[in-house]
Design brief:
The complex is a heterotrimer.
Chain A: E1 10-14, H1 15-25, E2 30-33, H2 40-52, E3 56-59, H3 63-74, E4 80-84, H4 86-90, H5 93-101, E5 107-114, E6 120-123, H6 128-132, E7 143-145, H7 150-167, E8 171-176, H8 177-181, E9 183-187, E10 213-214, H9 221-241, E11 245-248, E12 255-258, H10 263-276, E13 281-286, E14 288-290, H11 294-300, E15 306-311, H12 318-325, E16 331-335, H13 344-355
Chain B: E1 3-10, H1 15-28, E2 32-39, E3 47-55, E4 67-72, H2 75-81, E5 85-94, E6 109-113, H3 115-122, H4 129-141, H5 146-156, H6 165-176
Parallel strand pairs in B: 1-4, 4-5, 5-6
Antiparallel strand pairs in B: 1-3, 2-3
Helix pairs in contact in B: 1-4, 1-5, 3-4, 4-6, 5-6
Chain C: H1 26-39, E1 46-50, H2 58-61, E2 65-68, H3 74-84, E3 89-95, H4 96-102, H5 104-113, E4 118-123, H6 153-156, H7 162-168, E5 172-179, H8 183-201, E6 206-212, H9 216-219, H10 223-237, E7 241-245
Parallel strand pairs in C: 1-2, 1-3, 3-4, 4-6, 5-6
Antiparallel strand pairs in C: 5-7
Helix pairs in contact in C: 1-8, 4-5
Classes of the chains: A alpha/beta, B alpha/beta, C alpha/beta.
Chain lengths: 358, 183, 248
């Protein structure tokens, strides 16, 4: 049973349901989706709830169609979303490129599973690159938010709708199969952000104003250069204003472990154990994968001797951490292709081994 | 200090639901808790288990390869999970569907309970096996009360099935009354 | 006092240079769409999803709110617009490549779902904008830049009969095939477009019009020859008519 999400009441809930419920409370008017494990609960829940609330729900013929339906809905200034996973997020890359060019507030939930290809339904963090670099054409960025608890699934879903509209940029919630399927006590609260006025750009019919066109076709070279300059000024603004991260015991640390999403949970308890052993270890978690907390990592690199990146993939975030610290300290990697998060004992062993030389 | 629980059995034995009741009970007791399911590749009839982690502080690792308390409702789960019990931990075995082990570990506690038979004979429905087993767990672990588990039933059982709550409460109590000395 | 007998439809932009090739039927089709929007009083309440191909420029000529959909996705985008705004009038304007090749799934499923949308598809038996390659509607025997010896079944399979397929869907309220090769047919085409719009306005289901169109540039013909081809080669295969009309 999906617990009823009464504001202020603690309920035990799966990450997928938490995201779905938060989207509804954030005022999402339309959900478009196609089933894929491990996120199908989102669409299942939405199918009933949206109809009950008189909002829009479409079982799309494909993820391709689903994300384009989102584009259509948000082009009219309405909050809308889709959710999917890995190989099917691949199908949406074209539309994400269009949505960034069209500057549309698309919200997309990506609940990562094993890849490449069909892969499997075990948890994974293998779509870090897909989310932060993307597979669509041209110069663009998605805002990417990565929760590590079910409560944060709610917090960041709210935030995703807000940032998407604030910056008119597609925003992705990057969760994983573990977070989607696990239950944890959560507390709902009302959508905390201001509503963004969309009347200056949303399509509504050309009544008492000239017609509007939302388009990305740019036949003139110079116009497209100006457009991209402006787009990247927007990204600079996002990088200045929206970086979010979590730190744990980094103040006096010689050694910092960097992880995002579910993996950070294990990292934190490994750090705790290391501290009990007298090792000066800290942990760092980017919450916004784009904008990446590069500046903060760079200043941490002035104090620590080594950084260990740990992820359930083959080292995708390592590149961003290395770029951030720019050679100041060695950036090591401990990863695992897919499945259960690396267990705490293994992490402690790895930290002890790597700290040998610190 | 984190305490880890695993409940395992066939699909259809109510393993996930029992785990959800246990996790809700911990939540109602103001503990930090996580629940995480693991299915076989099959949607029905395959093996299924869920892990519950209870803690006073924030729960770290959701999936562990060791647990303090494990309930196994069938032979396959018993075979798989006996080695997962932490030293000094407990394994509650449904002896209706799993044979007593010939080479028992001497560093853990085995609790054999004919769960399916009791559910059938005393509760009149083998579907009560899962909740009955939770009652046994409450007694063995001393980490959760029958009262909290009963309250948790209201969170888990959907409104249109509320009439099933008294029977489930009875199952919890009966499980809790199981005479551990008999083992 | 002079009586005005001709004017530019309100739904068309004024003083715009049309980028369609000389003799191309797109211009006539766009005008018919604009006239229907005017006559049904829809201009201020309409959002259109345009497509990729020669039809992409619709928003340069038509004076209504528009969003440019990725190639083949016009009806998915339109579905999103309409579901979010059931009170708006929403239509797509697509070519045969967009509608019946890359977007076939979106097109058919919009019809299956009975979306309250209207779709106009220009069928000129080729990919016009990219220089005349073989498309889903290219006729058997037709020479294109990617069927240099003519479309044969072994390599290319059969051409798609769009209006007939759309008519098979239970969610379709109206499906017709029209042509712009003569004044009489242009009149019929306008009536069909209007009907496809009206079924949406009445909430009856999916409205569809396939418009046979000339492409003198890629067919390497004069406008007159191109219309001859529409009549002599296309119409025997793509028969004009109303394939479904639930209001009839």
């Amino acid at each position: 049973m999906v617990a009823e999400c009464v504001t202020g009441k603690k309920v035990l809930m799966k990450g997928n349901y938490a995201i779905a419920n938060a989207a509804i409370k954030a005022g999402c008017q339309c959900y478009f989706g196609y089933p894929i494990t491990p996120q199908s609960e989102i669409g299942e829940f939405m199918s009933g709830k949206m109809q009950e609330l008189g909002r829009a729900y479409v079982s799309a013929e494909s993820e391709l169609a689903a994300i384009n339906m989102v584009i259509g809905a948000v082009s009219t200034g309405v909050k809308a979303m889709s959710s999917s996973s890995s190989c099917a997020i691949s199908l949406m890359q074209e539309a994400l490129s269009y949505a960034t060019a069209d500057q549309l507030p698309v919200v997309l939930v990506s609940v990562m599973r094993g890849g490449p290809g069909l892969g499997n339904i075990y948890p994974s963090q293998g779509d870090y690159n897909q989310a932060t670099i993307g597979g669509g054409n041209g110069d663009y960025k998605l805002i990417v938010l990565a929760p590590s608890t079910v409560q944060e699934c709610i917090d960041l879903t709210y935030k995703a709708f807000y940032l998407a509209f604030k910056y008119k940029n597609p925003t992705m919630i990057l969760a994983d199969g573990l977070l989607g399927q696990m239950m944890e006590p959560v507390e709902f609260y009302d959508y905390p952000y201001p509503e963004i006025d969309t009347t200056s750009w949303a399509l509504s019919g050309a009544k008492d104003r000239s017609a509007r066109v939302i388009r990305s076709y740019a036949p003139l070279e110079e116009n497209q250069c100006v457009f991209l300059d402006n787009l990247f000024k927007k990204y600079e603004l996002i990088e200045q204003n929206e970086v979010e991260y979590e730190e744990y015991m980094v103040d006096d640390a010689d050694f910092v472990v960097v992880a995002f999403g579910s993996m950070f949970r294990n990292v934190k308890s490994a750090v705790k154990l290391c501290r009990e052993k007298g090792l000066k270890v800290g942990a760092f978690r980017p919450i916004t994968l784009y904008p990446f907390p590069s500046e903060r990592l760079n200043s941490l690199a002035d104090k620590v001797k080594k950084i260990l990146v740990t992820e359930i993939n083959m080292g995708q975030m390592v590149r961003d951490v290395r770029l951030a610290v720019n050679g100041k300290v060695p950036v090591l990697f401990k990863g695992k292709g897919v499945g259960a998060m690396i267990d705490v004992e293994t992490l402690v062993e790895e930290i002890e081994k790597q700290m040998g030389g610190v | 200090m984190e305490k880890d629980f695993i409940i395992a059995g066939f699909g259809g034995q109510g393993v996930l639901l029992a785990g959800e009741v246990l996790a809700n009970a911990f939540m109602l007791d103001d503990k930090k808790v996580t629940w995480y399911p693991c299915y076989g590749a099959e949607m029905r009839g395959g093996t299924v288990n869920c892990g519950i982690v209870m803690s006073e502080e924030e729960v770290s690792s959701v999936q562990k390869s060791k647990a303090d308390f494990i309930i196994v409702l069938n032979q396959a789960s018993f075979d798989k999970y006996a080695s997962w019990v932490r030293k000094g931990g407990y394994i509650i075995v449904n002896s209706s569907l799993a044979k007593k082990s010939d080479n028992q570990r001497d560093d853990i506690n085995y609790i054999y309970v004919p769960i399916t038979e009791v559910a059938q004979e005393k509760l009149g429905n083998i579907k009560m096996s899962n909740i009955y087993a939770l009652g046994v767990l409450a007694k063995v672990s001393k980490l959760v009360s029958v009262e909290s588990l009963e309250k948790a039933l209201y969170n888990v059982i959907p409104p249109h099935r509320k009439h099933l709550i008294p029977k489930n409460t009875e199952a919890l109590k009966l499980g809790y009354e199981y005479d551990l000395l008999k083992v | 006092m002079a009586t005005q007998v001709f004017s530019i439809p309100k739904s068309l932009k004024k003083d715009v240079k049309y980028s369609f090739c000389p003799g191309c039927d797109h211009g006539v089709a766009v005008r018919l769409v604009a006239e229907c929007l005017d006559e049904l009083g829809l201009k201020e309440n309409t959002i259109t999803a345009t497509s990729i191909g020669c039809s992409v420029g619709l928003y340069d000529f038509i004076d209504i709110d528009a969003i440019e959909a990725p190639h083949g996705r016009a009806l998915a985008v339109a579905t999103g617009v309409k579901r979010a705004n059931p009170d708006k009038f929403v239509f797509t304007y697509q070519g045969d490549g967009d509608f019946a090749s890359i977007g076939w799934a979106e097109s058919m499923h919009s019809a299956f779902r009975g979306e309250k949308l209207s779709a106009i598809c220009i069928n000129n038996t080729t990919y016009g904008m990219t220089g005349g390659q073989l498309g889903p509607t290219t006729l058997l025997g037709q020479v294109t830049t990617t069927s240099p010896t003519g479309r044969n079944i072994e390599y290319y399979g059969y051409p798609v009969k769009i209006a007939e397929h759309i008519a098979l869907s239970e969610g379709t309220a109206f499906s017709a095939r029209v042509s712009l090769d003569s004044v009489a047919n242009i009149r019929k085409a306008k009536a069909a477009i209007k009907k496809a719009f009206e079924v949406q306005m009445k909430g009856l289901g999916f409205g569809f019009v396939e418009i046979l169109s000339s492409c003198p540039t890629n067919w390497r013909m004069s406008p007159q020859q191109a219309h001859e081809r529409v009549r002599n080669e296309m119409m025997p295969i793509y028969k004009l008519g109303v394939y479904k009309d639930i209001t009839a």
